[in-house]
Amino acid sequence: MLSKANSESIQEMLKAQVIQINNRNIEKIEDDNATGEKTTENITIEFSAKILNGYKKGMKVPAVQTVDSYLPIKIKEIEVGDKILLCRINDPKDGNYWIFAEYLRSDTLLWLGGIFIILLIIFGHLQGINTILSLAFTCISVFYVLIPAILAGKNIYFWAVCVSIFITATTLLIVYGTSKKALCAAMGCLAGTAVSGGIALVAGAVMKLTGVVNDESLYLLYLNPDNPINLKAITFAAILIGAIGAIMDVAISLSSALYEVKEKAPNTPAHEIFRSGLTIGRDMMGTMANTLVLAYIGSSLSLVLLLIAYRTSWLGLFNRELIVAEILQTLSGSFGILFTIPLTSLICAWIYTIKKNTKVTAQKS
């Protein structure tokens, strides 16, 4: 029923708990077609609920849940005790009334998030606390900086790059502190991310991508018709934000490993550190590329199945912008990882040996 309501008529959404089922009406609908008669049922459940938050907290209100049987998966009917979300609809004809919107799921997510934070602190101690802080700064930078900047009509390319730099800097500073390996990892991560973003820009221009990959993309255009959001820039930002985590993981792992090499063998020359970085990087390469591929496939598996099931032409499938954009994200991120390995190795070889080389030069003079 919520989907049928005009979004402009929705006044508020509140948490509630079902306290009583008042009535259950079944409307049978006969559908005559070429395959024969088919009977469907529309179920309307009238119930009473207690508001759990907001200025109406504690108030009991009548509400309605509508279950359309034509849906392939039947929506679970509410029961006494269920925690749900209610929407108050302002209808010029019927007046104000409350309808069932969704089952309350956010509380479960908060519990899972809380357990995750507790386990991080238990297993990681101070490092776990630092990890939580870095996650908090990452979320703040995305939800309170990047997204508001996009909606305000700012330059998406600029803000995506700024947020990527901020995420890299804050994460490495909070988790690893101001050390040489953090500096090398940050430089290597930013270099790999720059490669990823550059490939995304060039490939997007060559393939003439518009950024319109689904219905949500079109809705973004209608948010501000006078100054529409640049959808191609949105794709660029998504590639950058999506790849930076895996690239940072490779950069810090490689930087830490090479730092240990230098600590255990202080006389190791720069070219040997670089070669060691390439050797270690080969072992990381496969798993990190798989991380990106599996993440993108997993996030859109249902869509991929649907497209494959309803399109017989593989040529058409792999030229569809939605699929092309997903593949471009995977390839751009993989290129970023690939270039992060030699670039981070080169940076580590230079920074880890620069002090020693300075001392040697001073002694000779």
Q: Would you summarize the structure shown here?
A:
By secondary structure, this protein is α+β, with helices and mostly antiparallel strands. 61% of the residues lie in helices and 18% in strands.
Helix content: 55-70%
Give me the Rg, rounded.
27 Å
Percentage beta strand: 15-25%
**Separation, N- and C-terminal Cα atoms:** 84 Å
SSE sequence, one letter per element = EEEEEHHHHHHHHHH
Low-confidence stretches: 1-9, 357-365
Overall mean confidence score, pLDDT? 82
Please report the total strand number as a whole number: 5
Structural class: alpha+beta
Spatial strand order of the main sheet? 1-2-3-5-4
Outline the biggest β-sheet.
Answer: 5 strands, mixed, barrel
- How many helices? The count is 10
Shape: elongated
List keywords for this structure.
disordered N terminus, disordered C terminus, five-stranded mixed barrel, 61% helix, 365 residues, single chain, alpha+beta
How would you describe this structure to a colleague?
- This protein is an alpha+beta fold and 365 residues long.
- It has 10 helices and 5 strands.
- It has helices spanning 106-124, 126-151, 156-176, 180-206, 215-223, 231-264, 270-299, 301-310, 314-317, 321-364, and strands at 10-33, 36-51, 60-68, 83-91, 95-103.
- Helix 3 (156-176) runs parallel beside helix 6 (231-264), helix 4 packs antiparallel against helix 6 and helix 6 runs parallel beside helix 10 (321-364).
- The relative contact order is 0.09.
- The model is unreliable at 1-9 and 357-365 (pLDDT under 50).
